Amino acid sequence: MVEPPSLEKLVREFASLPGIGKKTARRLAYFVLNRPRENTDSLTQAIAEACEKVKRCSLCHSFAEEDPCPLCKARAGSKSICVVEKFSDILPFENAGIYHGLYFVLGGVLSPLDGIGPEHLHIPQLIQRIQDEKIEEIIFALGSSPEADSTILLIDKLLAHLPVKRTSLARGIPMGSELEYIDEVTVLRAFESRTGI
């Protein structure tokens, strides 16, 4: 069976999304086509509206419909900034209500194998914001990959001349885990980051 060209195009568009393979893309395309027309119209309208209205905040590079974003406006004057890889990394902090400072979306981490170098990240804007707003603490929340570690090391080196405290999220053994199932690197990091009781 040969799919119509417009259906093939829809499958290709879905397949271009992260984490969506060809089979899932085809299922999504069929699902959309099987929906009543008014449902597909509302989906199309929601995508178009989001693409039109949602922009990057000029201060933190997160998504917002206004510039600066509501968080940058509400927390202006805060002296701590949490650096994350992507916008969705902000949500766990906000949902938990554990952090009330500023954020900065770096736009990724260094990954030479993927062709992502320092020039592809918002590092210069981060350094400038730290200087302009006299930030006292930078909290790195970039994950625990070697790429994230090298990104943190580069930024740390670039901040060497500034009197700003630099911290990163603790790493270790997840709650409810058994040691025998934990990989060596996680055990090592947990051991190195041990705290008093």
TrEMBL record:
Highest rank taxon of the organism: Bacteria
List UniProt keywords, sorted A-Z: DNA damage, DNA recombination, DNA repair, Metal-binding, Zinc, Zinc-finger
In this chain, the C4-type zinc fingers fall at: 57-72
The segment(s) forming the Toprim domain are 79-174
Write down the InterPro entries for this protein, in alphabetical order.
DNA_Rcmb_RecR, Rcmb_RecR, Rcmb_RecR_Znf, TOPRIM_dom, TOPRIM_RecR
What are the coiled-coil residue ranges? Answer: none
Fetch the Pfam families from UniProt. RecR_C (PF21175), RecR_HhH (PF21176), RecR_ZnF (PF02132), Toprim_4 (PF13662)
Record family assignment = Belongs to the RecR family.
PANTHER family, from UniProt? RECOMBINATION PROTEIN RECR
Q: What does this protein do?
A: May play a role in DNA repair. It seems to be involved in an RecBC-independent recombinational process of DNA repair. It may act with RecF and RecO.
Q: Which HAMAP family match?
A: RecR
Q: This protein is called what?
A: Recombination protein RecR
